[in-house]
Amino acid sequence: MAVRCTDLLKLEIFCHLKLLGGKDGLDRIVRCPYVTLTKTIAQWVHGGELMFVSVKDLSCNAAQLLQLFNEGYQKNLSGVVLLVETVKNLFLDDLITAADCFCLPLFQMPYELPLVEITEEISSFIIQDKLRLQFTNELMIDIFSAQKNDQQSLISKAMLYHYDISGAHRIVIISINNLQSIFQENNFLLVKKSLIYMESLQGIVDAICKKRNWNVPGFINGNMLVLLLPATARAEIEKMLMEIYGCIEENLDNPRIFISIGKEYSSLSQMRRSHLEAKRANSFTTGENKHIIFYEDLGFYKVLYEINNQQIMTNFSDEVLLSLKRYDKENHTVLMHTLMIYLYENCNLVKTAKKLYIHRNSLIYRIKKIEEITKESLDNENVCEKYRQALWVEKFLISVNHNSINE
Hints:
The chain is an alpha/beta fold. It folds into three domains: about 5-125, 3-Layer(aba) Sandwich (Udp-n-acetylmuramoylalanyl-d-glutamate--2,6- Diaminopimelate Ligase, Chain: A, domain 1); about 145-300, Alpha-Beta Plaits (2-Layer Sandwich); about 310-405, Arc Repressor Mutant, subunit A (Orthogonal Bundle), CATH 1.10.10. Helices cover about 55% and strands about 15% of the residues. It has helices spanning about 5-10, 55-60, 60-75, 95-100, 115-145, 150-160, 180-185, 185-210, 235-250, 270-285, 300-305, 310-330, 335-345, 350-355, 360-375, 380-405; strands at about 20, 30-35, 50-55, 80-85, 105-110, 170-175, 220, 225-230, 255-260, 290-295. Strands 1-5-4-3-2 form a five-stranded mixed beta sheet. A five-stranded mixed beta sheet has the order 7-8-6-9-10. Helix 3 (about 60-75) runs parallel beside helix 4 and helix 8 (about 185-210) packs across helix 9. The radius of gyration is 28 Å and the shape is elongated. The mean pLDDT is about 85.
């Protein structure tokens, strides 16, 4: 997936480098090596570079080097590699302290080591990773279009990159719903920055999955990261997803994260179904104010998704609620909202009044008005159940229509 500093440590040539500080940032994504020839870098880097600095050739003193390192942190570099002569290590203490504080990896490299060999090795490793990413995207597309007789060939194909996709799996979608507001940029820059942002998210997810010895294929689709997760106990999945959620919140700027999970299936030909379920669950995460939601927990909404004719649902909702909607619109009242909270609180007057911040007598007046308009009594359990169902249907239709607009 995305190359991180910790992945580079496995390269044979990296045995010549020494990690001085910032070990807590080793999961930072590395987009490319960058050799700086200037004492300032703000206008030359864009984030994700592993910066090489020759202290001798730049003639940096301790203060200049610290300023350069601070710029690297502000520009979100993946790390800094110092080419330092061994006899001149005494001024690195402040830099190491800053590296630990910023969680920005700081490496030391022997000055006499050919720099081109290191940068070529890193570039080659990143290119191989991009090829792996392209392969994974194609694999996931093949899985979503798979037929039953394609399963064995897909399993064999996946093994080329050590993905074990045999056995039962499910689809998980991790979405960031506020990328536009995070960057506040024009469309071109938004697409560019969003991709880097989503790659960082993918790196976080990869690191957490690998701690569980899971090599999980996935691909980025706009503001969504789609993963093929192996079957395991629900408690284990929830624990891992909570860790992912917390880690994203901690490491990325102001994200609105929603994680939705499709049902588990034994055949790859059913992953398209699991993907659809995860997308459906995702459409309800915001409305339910839940950040992690399983499709199997949607309850009554699962039934609604199986009704092909939405007009039937619209007719039912209008038949039950239209008179109240019209009254609210014409009289600038909130009877629909009052009814919703009243039913949500199981027709408890005290709890409903408290939730609406109104006096109990005002609530009683509103309920009588609702009964007058609808010509039905809310003391009748069957009537209350009918209105609950109509509100569920309306919420479902709003969610589905909102989703189709965004798509």
